[in-house]
Specification:
- The chain is mainly alpha-helical and about 160 residues long.
- Helices cover about 65% and strands about 10% of the residues.
- α1 packs antiparallel against α5, α2 crosses α5 and α3 packs across α4.
Length: about 160
């Protein structure tokens, strides 16, 4: 369809189907991944992702600002979550020795045990709701699409 400066270029049926599929993934998939985590580990998906990202960082230490970015949450939301983690003995915060303007979140051994215990539940959900229904070619296509849209964690850093 042609558009004028005042009228948008409307989506074709194929474009609308692609867009609707993406929106469905973005809106519905997190809930499907979170429900088993909540049930088995008492963690929200955001909490699990925060712990997981710290656990995978060198020395199990990560700047709070980078962690907020990777976990897709605001710094204030992350601060509230990390405060609860601190109260449970899972995370310790300290000023970044390289730049005191930043705060480092460090995973304790107890926090590491929590994320290790929750990881199998998360991986089972990822397999069930994302990977297993896809062929190897679909998985590669999904990774390629994410790369093109620049929405992978490596693109966000």
């Amino acid at each position: 369809m042609a558009s004028t400066p005042d009228e948008p270029l409307w989506l074709t049926p194929d474009e609308k189907e692609a867009w609707t599929g993406l929106v469905s993934l973005v809106l519905l998939l997190p809930g499907r991944l979170e429900t088993p985590l909540q049930h088995e580990s008492g963690l929200s998906l955001f909490e699990y992702l925060a712990l997981s990202h710290i656990s995978e960082a060198p020395g199990r230490r990560l700047r709070m600002s980078e962690l907020a970015y990777l976990a897709n949450g605001s710094l204030s939301r992350l601060s509230n979550v990390v405060k609860r983690f601190e109260q449970r003995g899972w995370v310790e915060r300290s000023p970044d020795p390289e730049d005191g303007r930043y705060t480092i979140a460090a995973l304790t051994d107890a926090g590491y045990e929590v994320v290790v215990a929750a990881a199998p539940t998360h991986v089972r959900s990822v397999r069930r709701f994302v990977l297993d229904p896809l062929t190897a070619a679909d998985q590669k296509a999904l990774a390629r699409i994410a790369a093109k849209l620049r929405i992978r964690p490596i693109d966000l850093a």
